[in-house]
Design goal:
The chain is α/β, with parallel strands linked by helices. The radius of gyration is 21 Å and the shape is globular. The chain has eleven helices and eight strands.
Length: 297
Amino acid sequence: MNKVFINGLKIIGLFLLGFLSVVLLLMYTGVIWRSPEHYSVAAVKDFKQPVMSMEEYSNVPGHRRPYTFHLSKGDGEAYIVGIEHTKDTNNPQLDTINRIWEDFKPNVVLVEGRLGFLFSGIQDPVKTHGEGGRVISLARRDKVKFYTWEPLKQDEVNMMLKRFPAEKVALFYSLRPYLSNYRYGKPANPAKNLQGYIDSRTDYDGIRGEITTVAQIDSIWAADYPQEKDWRDSTDEFGWPKGELSEMAAYSNELRNIHMCTAILELMEQGNKVFVSMGSSHAYRIEKTLKEELRRE
């Protein structure tokens, strides 16, 4: 083999090794943030007081925002902090997070979502990851262990597939991040944005390959939701379109809340002080479930 070619491969290999070493060093020192680990529960609880459904919640006349409450049992404590999702660094709700954090002094944190990478010092945590970014920045500052309270995606997908067709589950997971982020502004290229979600959010056993193009989503949307605005101009801020999508959103939300409540109680049972951040609707809907479970124990 040509020596020049071999030497070129060696140089490329050394470069890649050096680049990987730098990335790992930046992760180790906290310059690059990694996604929070999932908190794996020992066993999902079967709650006597079910978590309030989205349908029930839609009939609630209103409640305070932020929605916060404190729990205690033995040596364990938890502070539930429900925030209206925001990426505005000047939002006064962030002051609530700061105040409760300083007063409560938690030793473990659970946050909503699977927050991705962030370059500390270059990207703002709130602008990049919303209120969860603020919570994780506090956890990193105080060296507090943090997790996402979301269930593992494959586990959630498996549960969804027991109730809904694979193609529709793939549709839901493709659209969910698009409709959620639309509240912050319409992307410059909706189709390109959605294609990225199709590629990443359907790469799970059971739904892989069910939907591969934006054209497929256009076709399903036109057939199932002819009276709704195009998905390119839709948001889930005030709910999903009535029908199978709204049923999937409600069920997915229910699965997430059950997993979160189980994690909170398990960490409390271990004597931890748990700081939990989430959307305000989650906080309101889980309050009775958690308090009733603690009362019964």
